[in-house]
Amino acid sequence: MGFSVLFLFIISSAFHINLTSSADIADDFRSSCDGSNGDFIANSTYKDNLNLLFSNLSDQDYNHGFYNVSVGQSPDQVNAIALCRGDQNEDICRSCLKNTTAALQQTCPNKTEAIGWSTFCTLRYSNRQIYGVMEADPSAAIWRTDNLSKPSDPDGFNQTLSFLLKNLSTRAAAGDHNFKCATGVTVKPDKIYALVQCTPDLSQQNCSDCLEKAMSNERMGSSCYRLTGCRILQPSCNLRYEIDKFVDSVDVTVEPPPPPPPPPPSPEGKGNSTSTAIIISTVASLLGVLLLVLWIFLRKRKAKETVETTEEMIVAESLQYNFATVQAATNNFNDQNKLGQGGFGAVYKGRLSNGQDVAVKRLSRSSKQGDTEFKNEVLSMAKLQHRNLVRLVGFCLEGNERLLIYEFVPNLSLDQFIFDPIKREQLDWERRYKIILDIARGLNYLHEESRVRIIHRDLKASNILLDEDMKAKIADFGTARLFARDETQGNTSKIVGTYGYMAPEYIIYGHFSAKSDVFSFGVLMLEIVSGQRNSWFVDGEALLNHAWKNWTEGTASNLIDPTLRNDSRINQMTICIHLGLLCVQETVADRPTMGSIVHILNDNSTTLPVPSKPAFLVHTTVVSSNTSSSQRLRDKPLPSTKNDASITEPYPR
């Protein structure tokens, strides 16, 4: 271990790591310049956007030391994430970001993607989407050249350290969308301080996965083994441990399980009794070992369950509001504050005592769940964190009252813009395309990235809300789980959703899957391009029929909203029409996944297959929302819509 510089472990040769020697971890700066993403030209738009981002970074709201900033428009858009160490204050955070920004500009000039690690903060930027994406590469392991001492009992030290880090990882991952950091210390048999942290845009599962990767033999095991202080750096998370106190505050003191007792003494004896004594001793020792292993296993499991239960209780307490508070926030649910009425109850605008504007959904009293089940479902919903999902702020459970408190989204829903002849002019093609991409990302998160797979089943324009920057957020993605329903995973005997958006296999057979949501997304995308509802379109012709007819005749531009036809990006609009028709194909297997849709929208050069004829639901099937799937009416036009209630179906990953 006689290194004169810090050893740096590089997991991927595609990345260049800039290494600077230092005698103290407090002065360390490391950077990684992504060589696979190319360089930008010195006087390019990307460079201007990057400079603007760097200059404005310190002006952003502190937000517990987490920053998510984007500047410019694709393909020159720069996306950045910054994270300050969770135990530091705002002044140290901003100072670190300022210094890291300057250092990163020097070490990674002209790179379209780079990351810089300092002692108190991490800064990364890219021309691709990085928010909400767990990334463990590139990685680095760092320790001080003056702290290469070895513990007296390396194996015991590592067992204690492992127990501490796993405990803190569970705590950090259970944090909310603002803060995922935990600090702790063990006091026996070794005193070890540790800090683990994830960027709070990660889900609980992604945070756990990232930290587990950092603690793996591949990372920490190969670099930090037998050392009394080390750091593992990754883009989405990091950890550090030392025998000296380096954190300003400690969240928890962790006591690892006691070491196993020493083996019993060897038996002594003579003659024929010696063999018997040895056998008895051996069997007893093996039995003792098995009992000890079982005892340690049960103790660890109990400790883990205790930590998880404690974390659930902490999260529940932080989310739960009393009824009087919500009643005051909504002015006693005054009709003047009413935002709308959905299938599950009315929604009111409210303002909490801290000044935060919220939307309060007062659920109808038809739920058959008990209080515990309701609270568990709410906690599951709260763990779904994504910038394109409406965030759950809290809940209220008192008597017969069940209230869900969401972030308030000021521009209300997409349908109030896209179908309004005046307001639609506010949505130029650039904004509409971003809305399409936002919806795709949110839906892909529900399908593939969240801890449980969520099938929305009521994706429509009125369930897409727009924030102050006109960014789209999917709403009503979990409410129906709070209500009893007679269905199994993948099948339902009651059709709940909105006609015109529902896939044929769902209406006719009651079968639903992620591809059912893809169908709805395709209809919604065609509505956004055309500015028209999916019900009736031209001379009684439905939207899907009209789109297919013009596509096959080579006149797809006829589908484009007249307010957009002077825009130069007609080719991009045509790609969206093409992609929309792929989504609404009748054969489920032919529809793309949301992951591939996001990729196509990010890369317009992708070659798309030829779509097959879509399912013309508006001419073939109608089923009432209260009718079983065996009762079907055919060859009648569907009504445009009738059901504001969304439903989700969870599949554990």
From TrEMBL:
Q: Which InterPro entries match?
A: GNK2, GNK2_sf, Kinase-like_dom_sf, Prot_kinase_dom, Protein_kinase_ATP_BS, Ser-Thr/Tyr_kinase_cat_dom, Ser/Thr_kinase_AS
Q: Which organism is it from?
A: Rubroshorea leprosula
Which residue range or ranges hold the Gnk2-homologous domain?
A: 28-130, 136-246
Query: Which segments show compositional bias classed as Pro residues?
Result: 255-267
Location within or outside the cell: Membrane
- What GO biological process, any one, is recorded here? response to oxidative stress
Spell out the GO cellular component terms annotated for this protein, sorted alphabetically and separated by semicolons: plasma membrane
Protein name as annotated: Uncharacterized protein
Pfam families, alphabetically?
PK_Tyr_Ser-Thr (PF07714), Stress-antifung (PF01657)
Residues binding ATP are K361
Matching CDD domains: Gnk2-like (cd23509), STKc_IRAK (cd14066)
- Protein kinase domain location: 333-608
Alphabetized UniProt keyword annotations = ATP-binding, Glycoprotein, Kinase, Membrane, Nucleotide-binding, Receptor, Repeat, Serine/threonine-protein kinase, Signal, Transferase, Transmembrane, Transmembrane helix
GO terms (molecular function) for this protein are: ATP binding; protein serine/threonine kinase activity
Using the record, list the residue span of the signal peptide; answer none if the entry has no such feature. 1-22
Q: Which residues cross the membrane?
A: 277-298
Region span, Disordered: 251-274, 627-653
The protein's topology relative to the membrane is: Single-pass membrane protein
Q: Which reaction does it catalyse?
A: L-threonyl-[protein] + ATP = O-phospho-L-threonyl-[protein] + ADP + H(+); L-seryl-[protein] + ATP = O-phospho-L-seryl-[protein] + ADP + H(+)
Q: Which PROSITE patterns match?
A: GNK2, PROTEIN_KINASE_ATP, PROTEIN_KINASE_DOM, PROTEIN_KINASE_ST
Main localization of the protein? membrane
